[in-house]
Write a structure and sequence with these properties.
Blueprint lengths: L1 E6 L2 E6 L6 H8 L18 E4 L2 E4 L12 E3 L7 H12 L9 H14 L5 H7 L10 H16 L1
Parallel strand pairs: 1-5
Antiparallel strand pairs: 1-2, 3-4, 3-5
Helix pairs in contact: 2-3, 2-5
The chain binds FE2/S2 (inorganic) cluster (FES) (2 copies).
One FE2/S2 (inorganic) cluster binds next to loops.
Length: 153
């Protein structure tokens, strides 16, 4: 079945089953492999993308669910908040193996869009669904505070 999806600002038509998770549309049909498969059951956050600007789990949305929506992936997310998050992640050396990090970054951008100056509790609550096997949680929290300070100037 053909679906037209807007991905990173570009309309793309894909021919997939209606119940295909968009995680696989992005990775297998559109070659956008920055979005990662971790669990496939909404339990790890590795597959987080933005749908109409909100972080959502791409393993749990189908092509039919997102037809007509704006999907943004780690490859193209931009703007002052995204730039501040990327810079803070680099400066604080957040990444260890890296596998979970696209999802962490997409979720962190969502948090700062919603709550520009989050407390530790805000961060822990909002980032709760994003697992990191390398346990980079303390650096993620510090980088979110650093990014918030950069955006505030
Ligand atoms: S792969 Fe989607 S939440 Fe784990
Ligand atoms: S950096 Fe390795 S899983 Fe998070």
């Amino acid at each position: 079945m053909a679906f037209t999806l807007t991905v990173n600002g570009v309309a793309k038509t894909v021919d997939v089953d209606a119940d295909t998770p968009i995680l696989w549309v992005l990775r297998d049909e559109l070659n956008l492999t920055g979005t990662k498969y971790g669990c496939g059951v909404a339990a790890c956050g590795s597959c987080t993308v933005h749908v109409n600007g909100e972080p959502m789990l791409s393993c749990s949305l189908t092509a039919a669910d997102v037809e007509g929506a704006e999907i943004t992936t780690i490859e193209a997310v931009d703007g002052p908040v995204a730039e501040a998050v990327r810079t803070a992640w680099r400066e604080l050396d957040v990444v260890q193996c890296g596998y979970c990090q696209p999802g962490q970054i997409m979720q962190a951008i969502g948090l700062l869009n919603e709550t520009p100056n989050p407390s530790d509790d805000d961060i822990d609550a909002y980032m709760d669904g994003n697992a990191c096997r390398c346990a980079t949680y303390h650096r993620i929290r510090a980088a979110i505070h650093a990014a918030a300070a950069k955006v505030e100037g």
